[in-house]
Amino acid sequence: MKVQVYFAKALNLLDSFARAFALLPPARKAKCLAYRKEEDRLRSMCAGLLMRRYLNVTKDEDIIIRPSGRPELASGHPIFSLSHSGALCAIAIAEDNLGLDLEHLGRKTGGGSLAHKVLTPMEYKIFTQRLDDPEFFFSIWTRKESVMKATGQGLAMDPGNFSVIPLAKSDHFIQGKTWYFQTFEVSHHIFSICAEHGPLDINLMEATNQALLDP
């Protein structure tokens, strides 16, 4: 399945905040301003700009929010998934169902307390043997988040109840069906994409400030 992924350096938008903010529809502006921290506002704003640039989302009516919190185009297609962490924000776009998650490798895992909650017993056993390898944990965690998004269940789907290892395996049988994964690193961030159909053919492209701020 072909998947287009655009990523942007959200924190680079600080100097263009007023110009970028003016381009957002009202609901995204409100969502952006609801964040107390500046970096969170920038990441939310960047997500809105990615949807505007690559999905032509220019007004609130272009987006519907499912009960799970998952945003979708009112037109139904294409399918997209958003994620942001650290300095980056990204959007994955395809014609079939998918989920995207990314995490900054510098994020702390809470000394293993988060891992204990979200990993299966086997995953946790391997994790405790690789505590000096944050890429291992975040590869698992982003895969779990991506499939939780792809199913539309979000946090209602307990990540501790299904496994996404071994990481070398690109497909896993979860909740009665096969899901396809691809995990990779960009600028010290781990990306994972999950889709109903595979194998995945991913085209990755950086979205510059100029592209995001074009009228």
Protein described:
The chain is α+β, with helices and mostly antiparallel strands and 215 residues long. It has a single domain, classed as Ribosomal Protein L22, Chain A (Alpha-Beta Complex), CATH 3.90.470.20. Helices cover 32% and strands 29% of the residues. The chain contains seven helices and ten strands. The chain has helices spanning 17-21, 26-34, 38-55, 113-118, 121-128, 134-151, 209-213; strands at 2-9, 63-65, 71-73, 79-85, 88-94, 98-104, 171-174, 177-186, 189-195, 201-206. The strands form three sheets. Strands 4-5-1-10 form a four-stranded mixed sheet, covered by helices on one side. It has a four-stranded antiparallel sheet with strand order 6-9-8-7. The chain is globular, with a radius of gyration of 17 Å.
Give the secondary structure arrangement, pairings included.
Blueprint: E1 2-9, H1 17-21, H2 26-34, H3 38-55, E2 63-65, E3 71-73, E4 79-85, E5 88-94, E6 98-104, H4 113-118, H5 121-128, H6 134-151, E7 171-174, E8 177-186, E9 189-195, E10 201-206, H7 209-213
Parallel strand pairs: 1-10
Antiparallel strand pairs: 1-5, 2-3, 4-5, 6-9, 7-8, 8-9
Helix pairs in contact: 2-3
